[in-house]
Amino acid sequence: MHVGAVKNGRNFCANHWLQAFKGKGAKASGTRCQFDMYYKSLLKALQDLYNKEADELVANGTWGKATIEKPLY
Known about the structure:
The protein is an all-alpha fold. Helix 1 (9-22) crosses helix 3 (44-60). The protein has 4 helices and no strands. The mean pLDDT is 83. The chain has a domain at 29-61.
């Protein structure tokens, strides 16, 4: 899966989701279909957290590798 360049909550979550695979010693992998299923299964409150944090990162100009590689909520 390749995460798009748009700086939004969904892509912020996708970056974290891919990091979960890397954290297990595996090469970052996973399909868009798998991510779509994961994202759709998140509670609306969690999706809102990703959106809020992504908006804050964009507003502060701090969206970058260090911020997107934090653990999943």
